[in-house]
Design brief:
The structure is a homodimer.
Chain A lengths: L1 E5 L4 H12 L3 E6 L17 E4 L5 H8 L4 E4 L6 H4 L3 H21 L4 E7 L10 E2 L10 H20 L2 E7 L1 E3 L11 H11 L3 E4 L5 E2 L1 E3 H8 L10 E5 L5 E2 H11 L6 E4 L10 E2 L2 H4 L10 H15 L7
Parallel strand pairs in A: 1-2, 1-4, 2-3, 4-5, 5-7, 6-15, 7-12, 8-11, 9-14
Antiparallel strand pairs in A: 10-13
């Protein structure tokens, strides 16, 4: 099949590209490539099509959507923390541009869209393991917009008969996660360690997160390729809650460099507990073993150390 | 208290104005007043402040928000049918402008916002009576945007400590509902009868709606004035499901003018069944009796006949 991966040179997107190319599909990656060089996909040069462009540009996007069967949509300009003080940017950049993309995909005959939603922000305050039919109570602009985007995919299913799978992903971590302008606490802490600055730990033993390794995410998201006509919403997490203090202990045990840290109360834009019940998806992956957090934090740390370049001063 | 009613010269808004003025509050109505004349509130001239302006205009809106305690927000440029083929207009006009309003209200120290959401579109496909904790599955741009607006009110509660009550209203009908460019099936049918054109009936005995008279809505929405600090989401309907064919029979029995009609299958943007369980709200209104549909359709028809002016040709 012809598979387009929007934002395929990013963190999760590039791991999905690795998996999908490995399955033998014809892959196009659409992203902003500076100087025609990809950040994470040079090892696949010759095995896929690179298209550089702006997601908001209607004509460019329409051109790249032609003849595509399935599109993964990893383009997102924000994160929960950055959007906390700027609700407009979510609507202006992420929601509007996604709706435009869904419209163009419908016009171009795309059969299915795969959308990474946010298990960490759309459910809001909950306790215990969260299943997909839990009442979402998002309260950050990031989570609100992710959920509205899910709903617009429902609309395009009804209105334009385009299928869609939605993955509500837990706390992703792993190689290629941006360390400057970081999205996740693991990348953020590693950045501070590299820079010699103090780690700020927000939360306590009740602040639970479902950390999932990016390669596991990528592999599980290939599930959507088996059926181009079905539509479903899946949680995508390990189902294991790790407290922020336990995560700190993993860092203390594994990071081969001394660092300082300071523990603070939970912030208002963070949920207390996010543990995803992913049994709907895992029913298709009998015997699947999630990667060990401790081992993969070591691997991630090695990657980050090797690839870190301090932000350039203007 | 100082109470601002945005869109207070509209259908539901103007009935709320009647009730709130009757309770002795200091009321300001913000709407587009052509030639400084209100459509529905001339009987209250001298008893309230009229401010004419555009909701999207930040400076005008900020000026009118100063010193207000509570704001009802009835401004909405679309309806479920009009938005079915134009998802952008919902985001561009309703969602973005509402977020701007919430921001300005926070800055101006408004204590509470009251928002009319849509019981008919946010829940999506459901059966039986729907309570507020039912998983919403909106699939029309209108319903998706109403739900996202609810969620942004959650955000402003957390982010700016502004309270909000949300009313998920059933199928409103009654005097002052627009007959040209109509929003509800009752107003639409009356328009067709007046124009001598055939009524198009979409649905069957399973197409159930919760029709609620506008004066009941207005009275029940004054509940929010009792506590300026609390926030809650309320269904606002009668809890009685009336099929589209039963509604047709009410018209046949009560309308004193012959008319033609044709029955079609349900349209894709209509839900099968919408019956709201409003017991959360009605717990505050012991002994409340909803108006009779048959009697109030007669009253509405009398009002519509007296006030109808055909649309002017350009």
């Amino acid at each position: 099949m012809n598979i387009l991966i929007l934002g395929g040179d990013g963190f999760i997107g590039s791991h999905v590209v690795d998996k999908v190319v490995g399955l033998g599909h014809t892959v196009t990656v659409f992203d902003r490539f500076s100087y025609r060089v990809s950040k994470h996909l040079e090892h696949l040069r010759g095995k896929l099509n690179f298209v550089s462009g702006e997601f908001a540009n209607r004509d460019v996007l329409k051109h790249v959507l032609e003849n595509q069967d399935i599109v993964y949509h990893f383009i997102c300009t924000t994160n929960p923390a950055s959007s906390w003080n700027d609700p407009f940017i979510e609507v202006e950049q992420n929601l509007k541009d996604s709706i435009q993309f869904f419209e163009l995909a419908s016009e171009c005959g795309v059969r299915k869209i795969i959308f990474p939603s946010s298990g960490g922000t759309i459910y809001g305050p909950q306790s215990g393991r969260i299943a997909e039919d839990t009442l979402p109570q998002p309260f950050s602009p990031y989570g609100i917009t992710k959920l509205a985007t899910e709903h617009f995919l429902n609309y395009f299913r009804e209105h334009a008969n385009i299928a869609s799978d939605i993955y509500r992903i837990g706390n992703a971590y792993g190689p290629r996660q941006p360390v400057n302008n970081p999205q996740g606490v693991i990348a953020l802490w590693m950045k501070h360690i590299l820079e010699g600055s103090e780690i700020q730990v927000y939360g306590d033993r009740q602040t639970l997160r479902d950390y999932i390794y990016v390669e596991d995410i990528a592999q599980l998201m290939t599930h959507s390729l088996h059926d181009t006509d079905s539509s479903e919403t899946y949680n995508l997490g390990t189902g294991i809650g790790v407290s922020i203090l336990d995560l700190l202990n993993v860092f203390i045990d594994t990071i081969d460099q001394p660092f300082q840290y300071k523990v603070h109360p939970r912030r208002s834009f963070d949920n207390t507990s996010v543990i995803l019940d992913s049994s709907r998806l895992m029913a298709f992956f009998s015997g699947f073993k999630f990667q060990s957090l401790k081992e993969k934090i070591i691997d991630t740390w090695c990657y980050v150390k090797e690839n870190y370049t301090p932000p350039q001063k203007p």
